[in-house]
Every structure is written in C-alpha cells, then in structure tokens.
Design goal:
Elements lengths: L1 H14 L5 E2 H7 L6 H16 L3 E5 L2 E4 L11
Helix pairs in contact: 2-3
C-alpha cells in the first residue's frame, strides 16, 4: 500500500509540474507522524522503488518518478 501511495503522490506532483519529495514530506502528506521510524520506513520503500526503476533520486533523499513512469500501474 505504501508503494502505491508513494507512486501516486509523485505522479500527482509530476502532473502539477512540481519537483521531488523527501520522505519527511511524504510522511506529512500521508498523514503519518513525522518521526524517524516512519520516515526511515518510507525511505526504505522509496529506495526499493529506485532499485526497481519506478523512481529516480535526482539528489540524495529527494525522490521523483523515473523517466517514462506515469504512476501506480502506469509503467512506461
């Protein structure tokens, strides 16, 4: 579920022409407590999505959709 929320949030930002999100910003956006455990859990999932080619990390700790990815279920 967090994977889909991450992809949807970043797809929405891409559609609006907004830049990357940090994991702290994602936690706040998702209504989570912005505490280290939550932020690190999101960071781990975001890094996994980078490794799988769904997300890009243009700067350390800042995530965006990978080129050609449109969002959850979007692929390239």
């Amino acid at each position: 579920m967090d994977y889909q929320r991450i992809l949807k949030a970043l797809a929405d930002r891409a559609r609006l022409g907004q830049g990357p999100l940090t994991c702290q910003e994602m936690a706040a956006l998702f209504g989570m407590d912005v505490v280290p455990a939550r932020v690190e859990a999101l960071r781990s999932k975001a890094k996994r999505l980078v490794a799988r080619g769904w997300l890009a990390e243009p700067a350390p700790g800042r995530f965006t959709l990978a080129r050609g990815v449109s969002g959850p279920g979007g692929g390239s």
